[in-house]
Amino acid sequence: MVRSIQYLRFLLAMGLALGAISFTGCWGAKDQATSSFDMAEYRKMVDEQKKQQERLAEATSSIPELTAEEHERKGDLDAQSRNYPLASLHYDKALKADPARNSARLKLGQTFLQQGLLDQALTQFQDLRTREPESAPAHEGLGQIYLMQGKLADAEKALATAVTLNPSSWLAHNLQGLLYDQRRQHADAIVSYHTALAMRPREPNVLNNLGLAYALSGNYDAAIDAYEQAIAAGSNSPKLHNNLGIAYVQRRRYVDALNTFKKAMDESRAYNNLGVALLGVSNPKKAVACFEKAIELNPQYYEKASENLRIARQAVPNAAKGTTASNMAEAGSCP
Mind listing the domains of the chain with CATH numbers? Predict the structure, then answer.
């Protein structure tokens, strides 16, 4: 069996979406990004968000002007309904009417963060930190942005300050866990996630991150327990089901893995993902059968699954070099 980190990297290289790291902002409803997002896609998203905000500003230009308090209140309602572009517009207007209104500045930074507009969010949090050096949410927001940008030293400093100022912030402890995971300090990450859960029991995002930290440590039974708790708490995230499916494969619970993958995607892709995971644990015989099943179920999916099938078939003659006797004895069939 390959080492856990190498195995997870292999799955990523094969195109199996792990959703390894998820960030939760102020309202805790939307995953922000992974730690290594595609910059071209990110810039495209930023441009579209800017255009959307310009359209919103133009559409609302004829509305009678409100007070700063009224704009902030409307922004709160829009944020609660996840209309972050419109919420941002109202918070911006609140600040223009009252530049000292730091509550609106914090919320503006958070809505920018929810939209993935990191530069705009960074400006707001930096401004807030200057105005209120003891603001834990300002340091927390900065830590989250630095973490998403891969600036780990800056993230560590900001999050340490946030935790010092507000030790009961579950989000800050969760972000510290993500920081430790990126540094491969998985034992420290697990401690941080448990601290976050002590403050926010049954939080699905934290449970998912805890599960991944256990998986990266090679403790797949604990990972499965964390993932299953996240699902029991109400999460139906496809990447959570993917993570759980991968952990099931590590424990040779192939039927459970397949059923879990099916909850995240259509049946043909579920068989393909199971095949990829089986390759990751040096079981190419079963992987071949799963890729063949994926192609049988959806011939339109042939290109991707057939490439994986080719890789699996090449691995079969050499499987004995990197697998156990028990795996070699298994029949080449897919669950």
Answer: 1-17+239-335 (1.25.40.10), 23-166 (1.25.40.10)
